[in-house]
Amino acid sequence: MYRLLRQRSVQVILVIALYLSVAAALPEDIHRGLYTVSLCVKDLLLWLLPITVSVFIAHAVSSFEKQAPLFLLALFAFEAVSNMASVWYAFGWGMLTTGQLTPLESSHFVDAFSPLWRLPFAKPVWWTADKGTIAGIALGLLAAFKGAAIRSVISTGKSMIEKILTQGFARLIPLFVLGFVARMYKMQLLHQMVSQYADFLLWLVVCLVSYMLLLFLVGNGSLKGIKNLLPATGIAFSSGCSLSTMPWTIEGTAKNLDNPDLAKAVIPATTNIQQIGDCIANAFLCFVIYVQFNGYAPTLVIWMPFTLVFVLARFATAAVLGGAIFVMLPIYESYLRFTPEMIAIILAFNVILDPLITCSNVLANGALCRVFEKTWRHVLRQQSKPQFEDTL
Hints:
Blueprint: H1 2-5, H2 8-22, H3 28-62, H4 69-97, H5 129-146, H6 148-168, H7 173-186, H8 190-220, H9 230-239, H10 246-254, H11 262-270, H12 276-294, H13 300-314, H14 324-335, H15 340-352, H16 354-383
């Protein structure tokens, strides 16, 4: 029971259930106080985002200093393309499934519910994720060519940011969600939204399963390779952490490859950043939430820049519970104009669906390693460089 209560998804469900059971009896200031805390956490995240992106990307770039340049370039491009393809796949599923979605009534957007106070220091408009991306790439390249001292600073910074996200903000997730739930409760938004999301969660499961099957068919030509990754998938479901499954992911993936040693090079490099289940689930949920709150689907003009920043941000997230989502939330706000209610919904679903999403990440990484093996062989044939044959 203690281990169950430590699960973040269980904590969120219990906190929301407890709040809803007593919400009608709570004074107005309690509701507003909960919302104030959530906004404070969100504002702090907006300040932290560019630094997080910069440090994580710098660490990723500098860590490849000893790898063959062509191998690094091919792997980086492959991961970017695979993440982007999954986002557009989710966009297509969103277009197919949201035709009958009933938008929220416009009267619900009359906001008479305000926080008790806000942080006195506002974030400048130029303090954004794209600036952090540029700075991270530059810093990572500098570290790769200028020695260990800079890499040590970057590594220390990465460790500090990870601790802040996973040991600080992640533990605030139940309280963070609760404040926005309080706002939705007071604005009478909860019932209408909850009644519509059950069907879309089923569609999300179908969407994820279909994509996993497709990846194994493309990579292995059959579905037999799935059984080799079942042990890693089971561990991912119980732990909620892709990193903790890495030894089993490598072992299962190696059985599906012509060259088993390639798994030892690819899986560690892709576990943090090639999170297909995460990309599909969040892109699909973003699409559904956007349609419900706006009454229409996001246009290509909106979705294309969002996709680009979304994919770049995958290179700056930790594959641990509570880490990645905090990097993504400000991006949803900036590029999709998510309101606090929309952020609360997608955050809650990320926590509740984390076991499913983590399992999908592990399965997809194993399947895509086989696809990359085929791609890498093709690159070598095109380049005809014998010095790269040792990597296979």
